[in-house]
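Entry 14. Ran structure prediction on the chain below.
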Amino acid sequence: MLRGSLGWSAGLALWVLTGCAKAPQVHVNELPVRRVVVYRNGVAYFEREGHVDGQDVQFSLRRENVGDFLATLAILEKGGSTVRAASFPVELEEDEEGTRDPGFEATMDAWEGKPPDKRPGLRTVTLELDGTSHDVTVGYLAETPVWRPSYRLVVDGKGKAELQAWGIVQNQSGEDWTDVNVSLVAGAPIAFESDLGEPIVPPRPLVTDSGEIVSAVPEGDMLYEQATAAPAAAPAPAPEEAGGYEFDEDPLADAALNAEKKAAAKAPAGRASGGAAPSASKPGRPSPPVTQAAQLGGVGGVRDTSRLAAVAAQTGSTRYDVPVKVTIPDQSATMVLLTNVTIPGEAVYLFAPDYGVPDSLRHPFRVARFKNESGGLLEKGPIAVFEKGAFLGQGLMSSLPIKASASVPFALIRGIAVQTSHGSEHRGSRLHSIVTGRLMLEIDQAVLTTYHVQNGEQMDVRLLVRHPRNAQGKLWQPPA
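Output, structure tokens:
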């Protein structure tokens, strides 16, 4: 009876673990993962490649990955064919009566009885292809844990050190990465979540139709007859003569001129007109109204697009390409070697008081001083220091650009004591200025800091002191 209970419990535990396994972020049988590029901002670029026989290929995605997939999907179809479209089902909201759209219900019914990667819990994106045989490469972004660096620094005591940089990659994608090319990028390009897979209908203003009733009675006006017909207008200058701009004709001005011509044609000969004064530049013709385009200086004319700047994206990140293919099973991590170079470096003693470490007010640190000559950016991470086959300590290195130097504390040396004392003394005074009867003097006040060092170690040491500087003063006769 006890044995049966244990067997039932084991079977229940196995069932629970199996049921909790999540589906892959993106899954497609025809296109396995070939390349993974992991960044430091929580995303990774995946590249799938393979041969497809058929007119479409279907991707099964988790619901939360649809937006990133659609926003970053890049397709390279080899062989001359093209991708026609990418389609996916959309879940519709319920109406006021609690019923769904019939088309959505039909889609749900069609998915019943299909494998887990085709059920409504996931989304299926279908790429419609042109033709029946394709060599397809697909790239996209998906959420991925950041890769983390880890460093080792081996100093030789002669001013040289060997720097090793390792990268830790975690696979939480829901599928194995088998024989993939892995690249790690020391940088964080901008990446954000998108909801392209969710339907959004923005609210629109409501416009009502109130009929054709005229609410106000317009007043009429009158055009007086002209004594003589207006002469023909001079031909318009060519676009080059007008300064390179073409203006649209004003329909209001044309209507006024046409009405004026008709009235002048009906006027009896010799009858004077009491209208507006004719234009001085064109006798017998009233001045045409100024068009809106002319008032604005020809805003509707030809635009010069040669002044638009071309935008090019430049990146300053460092990319580490692992030279061999790597296999990382799902729900596991792998550490890969990124670089192993010899750089200038040493382990020295440094007295730099840090109020976060109370004992550092009396004892110096042992620090690793080195210069980044690895050829790439070194991200923030832990660093272990070794010398003569022994572990000296571990520190935390900040991000270190190329050719920059770092001083990383890795141990507190209590065998050396430093006592600090401060004093001040007057060094003299001199005339500065006399303004409105006021005498201004410059007085030199020196602040003296004395460091008294006691060496309790079994060997001679060279101690460096990080002395804080006063922003209002200057260092006077520093020790050699």
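The radius of gyration is 41 Å. Will compare against last week's run tomorrow.
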